[in-house]
Design goal:
The complex is a heterodimer of chains A (597) and B (238). Chain A has 597 residues and is an alpha/beta fold. Chain A contains 16 helices and 22 strands. Chain A starts with a strand and ends in an 18-residue tail after the last strand. With 238 residues, chain B is an alpha+beta fold. Chain B contains eight helices and seven strands. Chain B is elongated, with a radius of gyration of 20 Å. Classes of the chains: A alpha/beta (597), B alpha+beta (238).
């Protein structure tokens, strides 16, 4: 592989063209800045396309609602690990961002009076936790698809410059820590480029592919998170992964929570509606971590369904078939395709499946990446922004509410874009010179991969990683398994450092791409396992056997010692911590409370 | 676990090393849990890492893995392995009518150029209101069967008119998108959109062969949408 690197200059470079990247791109393109969007797949193939149930906003189109209630639900959902300034910001911006989408042409479903249709969703309640509220703005069960296409279309209108099927490889940072762009590979030719920019926005999505069983697309390999880790940026709260209650058993394909929002019920082998025992108030619409644990408990106690008693049923056979075909047509299709079940007449086999990365690259609510520094625990990394699933603002804390992910990418994609525009317009500057070693890491990685002899197999190493994560850091976590998991994943990391590919072609070499993706996945996997082993409490999606539910520590949560964000550094594989921001922007703190639904 | 061997004939071409394309015979062992063609392709790639194809969501919504499968366009992730006749190799080729970059990966530039040519975005020059633009459920219903397109290109690359004039004929995917905006009560550019298609090739090269309808993995009907645009052309000519 040649060591030639062509440098291209832009005002801003956005990595990723899913929801967050496209929303940021609209901001930059419409402001007239020279912007490059680098994406390893055509924009509408990004995984935002697979979001189903809706986007949260307290529009109040069907019943009374308020952003403050939404904020309360999000803080409670996060098990108080979310930063309350960022959460207030997101919930207050929700209406504006959803209305903008409608103006872009997004085909939302409609109420009889012509407004955006809203459905109930898990953990979203009225009047500070009283009863479920219709807050999820939906386009049938294809909300992500409708949203992603609408935002791509808006970018076509704005003439955004896309680099489609280009894979970003590494972050370029100088000695002062300022970010000056990324290196990237044009997949069709294998050529290496540097995108030299004044602002770099990461919108690279999550890394759900670290787990064996995942709702995520093949492309969700944590590329931005891996690049950030290699460049010395710590990763925040990586122990918190959402297991979505309803992945199709065996296939992993997502079944939206909107199914339960429309009246679907989870049943065990005795046909019992078991959620009534675990969440007497919200029942099947409790928060996702609560529902997933209830399902695994049912299965572990022998009340699972099927010949191996290893899944539960999602039942919508009592709903009006016309409603199902109108509101959940995609689910009907998925049932037939991936479960061999017609959900109008039969129940769907479902099981908790890895779905969403709550942690990520630490940012503030302006989308700026922040790291602990000499003066404060949140010092801005100049030139670097992140938004969407790859970022940790932190609005989801220890557990994300359904429909808050699409909201996150809208609000923080826009906010990162706005902040970058402000900076570039208010204080115009020329490009800072690239350091002499700007391409070294990238070229070393590529060279290592191309010359590796007697190395490990990419497919096998990836499977090893996925199986280790599944076994050692699943829905329920055990001290002993986590300790073993750390050792195991560090062994896998050694294999990943010597992956070998047979295919040496320069043209669209997908073997090389998968090996480079695995470099990113393994950073996320190690960060997850190490952070999870260290957090000796149960909170949100992280529940351990040695932190049980007691009167002193309800649900096993230990606020005295663990009300803090984890920060994992690749260098030295070490952990640090920073405090949670409990002070909202304008309202009172939502005080710590035991979480119950 | 029960395993089964699948035989493939796969179109291979790497311009870096191959003089010309060839069909490769290759087989792979699959498990009972491998339901879809994509599952088998992933297993094949574990065996030979040089086989190049696109894939992402593996659930039929991203549109990446469109292929020509036993002579018919479709998505690998939605094609049941059980649907293949026993004892016959599964023949995989890249989508027809587009230049091949490598193996099963085609250059989709022309396809997207046509999509972009119809101005695939809402045009409404009124100042945006405070709240959403109102649309009745019935008006919204008009967009069903149009907005769900995943841009996989199964339709356009199965259309003989598109094969012959990919630079001049918009093709079924682009025309479906054109009608999606024409049908949207919020869009104000209907006559501009019709002007844009008033041409011997752009719209009227559709000869209702209906291959597009036949292969659409989302069950959409571009021919019907094209018919509606043609009707509108006639209406406004009178």
């Amino acid at each position: 592989m040649s060591a030639k690197v062509t440098v291209r200059k832009f005002d801003a470079v956005i990595v990723g063209a899913g929801g967050a990247g496209l929303r940021a791109a609209i901001q930059l393109s419409e402001a007239g800045l020279k912007t490059a969007v680098i994406t390893k797949v055509f924009p509408t193939r990004s995984h935002t396309v697979a979001a189903q149930g809706g986007v949260a906003a307290s529009l109040g189109n069907s019943e009374e609602d308020h952003w403050h209630w939404h904020m309360y639900d999000t803080v409670k959902g996060s098990d108080w690990l979310g930063d309350q300034d960022a959460i207030e910001f997101m919930c207050r911006k929700a209406n504006e961002c959803v209305i903008e989408l409608e103006h872009y042409g997004m085909p939302f479903d409609r109420t009889d009076n012509g407004r955006i249709y809203q459905r109930p969703f898990g953990g979203h309640m009225s009047n500070f936790g009283e009863k479920p509220v219709r807050r999820s703005c939906a386009a049938a069960d294809r909300t992500g698809h409708a949203m992603l296409h609408a935002m791509y279309q808006r970018n076509v209108k704005a003439n955004t410059q896309f680099f489609v099927e280009w894979m970003a490889l590494d972050l370029i940072r100088d000695a002062e820590g300022e970010v000056l762009g990324v290196t990237a590979m044009e997949m069709e030719t294998g050529e290496i480029y540097a995108f030299h920019s004044k602002a770099t926005i990461f919108a690279t999505g999550g890394a759900g592919r670290i787990y064996y069983s995942s709702t995520n697309a093949f492309i969700n390999t944590g590329d931005g998170v891996g690049m950030a880790a290699r460049a010395g940026i710590p990763l925040e709260d990586m122990e918190f992964w959402q297991f979505h209650p309803t992945g199709v058993a065996g296939a992993g394909v997502l079944i939206t929570e909107g199914v339960r929002g429309e009246g679907g019920i989870l049943r065990n082998a005795n046909k019992e509606r078991f959620m009534e025992r675990y969440a007497p108030n919200a029942k099947d619409l409790a928060s996702r971590d609560v529902v997933s644990r209830a399902m695994v408990t049912e299965i572990n106690e022998g009340r699972g369904c099927g010949p191996n008693k290893d899944f539960v049923y999602l039942d919508i056979t009592h709903l009006d078939p016309a409603t199902i075909m109108k509101r959940l047509p995609g689910i009907h299709e998925i049932g037939i395709q991936f479960a061999g079940v017609d959900c109008l007449r039969e129940m769907l086999p479902v099981v908790p499946t890895c779905h969403y990365q709550m942690g990520g690259i630490p940012t503030n609510y302006h989308g700026q990446v922040v790291v602990p520094g000499k003066r404060t625990q949140n010092e801005i990394v100049p030139g670097f922004f992140a938004a969407g699933e790859c970022a940790c603002a932190s609005v989801h804390g220890a557990n994300r509410l359904g429909t808050n992910s699409l909201l996150d990418l809208l609000v923080f994609g826009k906010s990162a874009g706005e902040t970058a525009v402000d900076e570039l317009k208010k204080s115009p500057k020329s490009h800072k010179e690239l350091p002499a070693d700007a391409f070294d890491r990238t070229l070393a990685r590529l060279n290592r991969l191309d010359t590796q002899k007697d190395g490990s197999n990419v497919h096998e190493s990836r499977l090893d990683m996925q199986r280790s994560m599944q076994k050692h850091a699943g829905v329920f976590r055990f001290d002993k398994l986590l300790k073993e998991g750390v050792q195991k994943i560090l062994e896998v990391q050694k294999d990943v450092e010597k992956t070998e590919i047979k295919d040496k072609s320069k043209v669209f070499n997908t073997a090389r791409i998968e090996a480079l993706e695995l470099d990113n996945l393994i950073e996320v996997a190690v960060a997850t396992m190490v952070s999870a082993e260290a957090r000796k409490e149960s909170r949100g999606a992280h529940v351990r056997d040695d932190a049980p539910d007691t009167p002193e520590r309800p649900n096993g949560r230990d606020d005295a010692n663990w009300l803090k964000h984890s920060l994992w550094y690749k260098e030295g594989n070490r952990l640090d911590y920073k405090s949670v921001n409990l002070r909202p922007l304008s309202v009172d703190t939502i005080a710590l409370k035991t979480r119950a639904y | 676990m029960t395993t089964r061997t699948l035989q493939f004939k796969i179109y291979r071409y790497d311009p870096d090393t191959d003089q010309k394309p060839y069909m490769q015979d290759i087989s792979v062992e699959i498990d009972a849990t491998d339901r879809k063609l994509l599952d088998a392709l992933v297993k094949l790639k574990a065996k030979d890492d040089a086989i190049a194809f696109r894939r992402s969501c593996r659930e039929g919504v991203c549109g990446s893995d469109a292929l020509n499968i036993n002579g018919r366009n479709g998505l690998a992730c939605l094609t049941d392995i059980a649907s293949f006749p026993e004892g016959k190799p599964i023949v995989l080729r890249p989508l027809p009518g587009l230049p091949v970059i490598r193996d099963l990966i085609v250059d989709m530039t022309q396809f997207f150029k046509q999509y972009h040519s119809i101005k695939p975005y809402l045009i409404n020059n009124d100042p945006p209101p405070e709240r959403e633009r109102l649309q009745s459920p019935e008006e919204r219903e008009e967009l069903n069967g149009l907005y769900e397109c995943i841009l996989c290109a199964c339709c356009s690359t199965s259309c003989p008119s598109f094969w012959w004039n990919p630079d001049k004929f918009v093709g079924p995917a682009g025309l479906l998108a054109a009608y999606r905006f024409i049908a949207d009560t919020r869009d104000q550019a209907t006559s501009e959109r019709l002007d844009n298609l008033e041409d011997p090739y752009r719209l009227f090269r559709c000869h209702t062969i209906m291959n597009c309808v036949d292969v659409c993995p989302k069950g959409l009907n571009p021919t019907k949408a094209i018919g509606k645009i043609k009707d509108m052309m006639v209406q406004r000519a009178i």
